[in-house]
Amino acid sequence: MKYIKMLSLALAASIVLGSFAGCAASKEPDVTTAGSSEVVTTTETPATSGSSATSEETTADPNYIRLFSEAQEYANMFISGFAANDLGDFDGDRMSVEKFLAFAFAYLKNNTDESIGYKKKGEVSYQTVTFAQALKTIGQLFGTGLKEEDCKALPKPPTKYGDNGEGPYFEDGKIWFFAADGDEQNTVAIVDSAYNNGDGTLTLKFTVYSIDIKTYLNLDNEEIKAYYKLTPEQAKADKTLKKICTGTATVGVGQSGEYILRSYKTTE
């Protein structure tokens, strides 16, 4: 399996949006260049280099935001983290403890192999992450927290396979799931356009692609990272990419420019 360390990459890249947080929170944004993003409020045609929407789209919505190289890459990587780890439709107000933990486990398993522990109870083999690791991941990606008391309400890991499901279970300060191989991370999401909602959040419209598996298996990590730098136009023209679906996400923008996921929905 290829580990891209998407979490650390996205957090490192977030600095490129550092000066954008105030702009995104503005109720009446001006034409303001901030870091690698620009809120467009005029009817002028944007430069095509690094632009992620047509001039018609820009003039139709005054809150359209251009994503240039670093900002495009950060947005792509952030949304890819959810697309590649099968988040499914998400509303921050309706996420169960079990779903938060299942996603955090999948994210850590596929991106930070050193976070995964291996345990055996009776006839069952488990993979585990600590509650602290899960809590940190959930906080960084979703801007919310869980109480360990919530996890203590989960069942303890059984010693036999049965009808209990693969997890999550909780014991000894750890989240437990039945052991299984990780998925190949050949999914990438490309943000097609971004819009300032005027309340400190952005709406991101994106397309999810799969990298041709034969191509993917022959790529090194640097070559895989290059996919996260693609503009929408480049992704559409790339013959190694196959469109899976489109989607829309709402993200909060932190003071240092980092994204926090508020909602996420895909459409075939």
Q: Provide the low-confidence segments as ranges.
A: 1-5, 7-55
Content of β-strand: 25-35%
Number of helices: 10
Assembly type of the chains comes to single chain
Strand order, biggest sheet?
Answer: 1-2-3-9-10-11-12-4
Structural class: alpha+beta
Give the tally of β-strands. 12
| Inertia-based shape | globular
Distance between the ends = 27 Å
- Could you give the order of the helices and strands? HHEEHEHEHEEHHEEEEHHHEE
Summarize the amount of helix as a percent range.
25-40%
Largest sheet: 8 strands, antiparallel
Overall pLDDT metric:
79
How big is the Rg?
20 Å
Commentary on this structure:
The chain is α+β, with helices and mostly antiparallel strands. The chain has helices at 6-13, 21-24, 55-60, 69-83, 97-111, 131-142, 148-152, 213-217, 221-225, 232-237; strands at 32-34, 37-39, 64-67, 90-91, 117-121, 124-130, 169-171, 174-178, 187-196, 201-211, 241-253, 259-267. A hairpin with a 2-residue loop joins strand 1 and strand 2. Helix 1 runs antiparallel to helix 4 (69-83) and helix 5 (97-111) crosses helix 6 (131-142). The longest helix has 15 residues, at 69-83. It starts with 5 loop residues before the first helix and ends with a strand.
